[in-house]
Specification:
This protein has 170 residues and is of the alpha/beta class. The protein folds into two domains: 2-62, 2-Layer Sandwich (Double Stranded RNA Binding Domain), CATH 3.30.160; 78-159, Orthogonal Bundle (Arc Repressor Mutant, subunit A). It is built from six helices and six strands, in the order E-E-E-H-E-H-H-E-H-H-E-H. It has a four-stranded mixed β-sheet with strand order 3-2-1-4. A two-stranded parallel sheet has the order 5-6. Helix 4 packs across helix 5. The longest helix has 15 residues, at 48-62. The radius of gyration is 16 Å and the shape is globular. Residues 79-157 form the Methylated-DNA-[protein]-cysteine S-methyltransferase DNA binding domain.
């Protein structure tokens, strides 16, 4: 049985979907696929992953911490999982291009396929697909809308430590 928790955030409500052990989805309230993606039976019982992601997202949006440790249930084909794993390694406040990801996963597939796989990420923000941009530095494609991508990148830019002796919170 999956449980659902709605979270208010600066980028709009997010719907967290989890079982007793793992977070399965994090969805924007205006996601066109919301109804189709959550057709499974759900309840509003609080679970440990829901409590954990609520606390981690609160810290993230307040700018105090960008580390997510909630266990994730990641589903997808092998290449999708490789793409998402690459995204998880992009440091806070930095970006990569879809071409960078394609080269890293040794994909002979086109950059468009990599972009589509970024778009099938069911746990945005936590798996930071918003950090993937066009090779020319442009903000391209984001399931939550480009305004959210821009907001997240600016927010993370403010959170990123600068220099060897940077202090948290300054």
């Amino acid at each position: 049985m999956l449980s659902v928790l709605w979270l208010e955030t600066p980028i709009g409500p997010l719907r967290a979907v989890a079982d007793d052990t793992h977070l399965h989805r994090l969805e924007f309230h205006d996601d066109k696929n919301l109804a189709d993606a959550t057709a499974a039976e759900t309840a509003t019982v609080r679970t440990a992953p829901l409590d954990q992601i609520e606390a981690e997202l609160a810290a993230y949006f307040s700018g105090t911490c960008a580390e997510f440790k909630t266990p994730l249930k990641i589903t997808g084909n092998a290449l999708e999982r490789k793409v998402w794993d690459c995204l998880l390694r992009v440091p806070l406040g930095e970006t990569c291009s879809y071409g960078d990801i394609a080269r890293e996963v040794d994909s002979i597939d086109s950059v468009r396929v990599i972009a589509r796989y970024c778009g099938t990420n069911h746990i945005p923000v936590v798996i930071p697909c918003h950090r993937c941009i066009g090779s020319d530095g442009s903000l391209t494609g984001f399931g939550g809308g480009l305004w959210r991508k821009k907001w997240l990148l600016r927010h993370e830019g403010l959170m990123r430590p600068v220099g060897l002796f940077a202090l948290a919170g300054q």
